[in-house]
Amino acid sequence: MTLRHHAWKLVEAARTLDVAMTRREDRRSVLIDSRTAMNYAMAAPIQAALAGDRRVEFFATSSEPGADIAAIHHAVLPGTTVISPRRAALKRIDVYLTADLLWAALPRGARRIQMFHGVAGKFQHDYDRPESSMRRWHRFFFVNRRRMRNFISAGAIDASSDAPRLVGMPKVDCLVDGSLQRDPILTGLNLDPARPTVLYAPTWSAASSLNLMGMELVSGLLERSWNVVVKLHDRSRDLRPFYSGGIDWPARLSALMQGKPGYLVPDADICPYLAAADVMITDHSSAGFEYLLRDRPLVRIHVPELLRGSNISEEYVQLLADAASSVETPVQALAAVEAALSDPHAGSASRRAVAADLFYNPGTATARAVDELYDAMELAPAAATATVPRRATAL
Fold first, then answer.
1. What are the residue ranges spanned by the domains of the chain?
2. Which residues make Cβ contacts (< 8 Å) with residue 179, sequence separation at least 6?
3. Whole-angstrom distance, CA of residue 60 vs CA of residue 84
4. Which residues lie closer than 8 Å to 148 by C-beta, 6 or more apart?
5. DSSP characters for 54-78?
6. Distance between CA atoms of 100 and 243, rounded to whole angstroms?
7. Rounded Cα–Cα distance for residues 306 and 278 (Å)
8. Cα angle for residues 111, 117, 123 (degrees, 5° grid)
């Protein structure tokens, strides 16, 4: 036994003793670590489903250096305690839950769960086919079999381990369960439900379609007899050049859309706007894939520099191309929207096929995630919580 391994054994023994001495049988703690508000939106449905269980206490933090913790968690669910990473390090946490590759320092230990924040295949060397071991994580809430297989084939995790769990994406359950209705959402935005609604939701990057043609595209959309909803990625609101090109996009778009039938989304969760849109335009975002669950027309702006710079796997580029109309200019995008509105059922089979590939049993993912969380907490599910199969063994 090496000195390092011996030291680790001592740490684990100390943590086990800590749990035995301080954990109450009827009390558990969950720490949600978010790099952006969109990360928190991924975990929020799980937290909401557990809101009635008073045995579970939720904390939220951001271990991202320099993060504005208050801004990231401005829309946390009631009962959440927002704390700094330093305070979190002093606490004994039962489960650490994150939708990004974060790793908060928790000297007293925790069961660490990675639930991911997208399915677009961006930065594949980290998020889809990791080039380094991911064996320190206790659980992975995989959104689909494809990524589970990719992690295993890349050697990042072991197929025989207890870590991979096929869960799905809790955030998008609302897109298929009937809880979101188009017309009330648009009315709430002061938009006319009788008009077709177009959603533009580009990904972040200085090379995104937003930077390449965003103003021209949105201006053209606003000239038509359509409602126009623009949803920026959280990172596109970051003025650092790497993320937004150093441009204040909210200010520019707000000025452009003022007095017109448009809405610039201020919040992190895109799901209500996906539900409200008759057509969506994106470049290469997870939200574009999520929209396929609505089986409505998708327009894809092909930006080669974005695909190269974001290290996007070719398999995901092809999947989105298969399910969308591909364009390269604002004029082509506007024409594609016109065509989509005139025949919204065209391409339906391809959209449904890609959605089935990338989202495991949508509509029931939250229930599986809750069951897995109880298992990780070593806590019996609350009586009202539905029990679902804990693990899918088929890869």
1. 3-169+361-377, 174-358
2. none
3. 8
4. 140, 142, 164, 166, 395
5. TTEEEEEE--STT--HHHHTTTPPT
6. 17
7. 26
8. 105
**In which residue are the tokens 């991979």 written?**
164
Mean residue pLDDT across the chain:
93
Q: Cα 246 from chain centroid? A: 24
Q: What is the percent of the chain where pLDDT is above 90?
A: 90
Q: Do 262 and 246 meet the contact criterion of CB atoms below 8 Å apart?
A: no
Q: What is the pLDDT of residue 391?
A: 35
The C-alpha atoms of residue 264 and residue 245 are separated, in whole angstroms, by: 19
First-last CA distance in the chain: 35
Topology of domain 174-358, CATH: Rossmann fold (3.40.50)
Task: Name, in order, each residue with C-beta under 8 angstroms of 45's C-beta and a sequence gap of 6 or more.
Answer: 170, 171, 173, 174, 366, 369
| Tokens, residue 394 | 């088929």
Tell which residue, 286, 201, 206, 214, has the closest CA to residue 243.
206
**Length, in residues, of the chain:** 395
Predicted TM-score (pTM) of this structure = 0.92
Asked if the domains at 3-169+361-377 and 174-358 fall in one CATH topology, the answer is: yes
C-beta neighbour count of 65 within 10 angstroms: 6
Is residue 282 within 8 Å of 288, Cβ to Cβ? yes
pLDDT for res 1: 58
Each residue of 273-314: pLDDT tens digit?
999 999 999 999 999 999 999 999 999 999 999 999 999 999
Q: Give which of 391, 17, 363, 382 is closest to 178, Cα–Cα.
A: 363
Provide the pairing of β-strand 227-230 with 262-264.
Answer: parallel
**Is the pLDDT assigned to residue 389 strictly greater than 90?**
no
CATH architecture of 3-169+361-377: 3-Layer(aba) Sandwich (3.40)
The Cα 200–Cα 336 span in angstroms is 13
pLDDT in tens, 22-73: 666 689 999 999 999 999 999 999 999 999 999 999 999 999 999 999 999 9
Chain centroid, CA 186 distance in Å: 23
In the block, residue with structure tokens 């039938």:
261
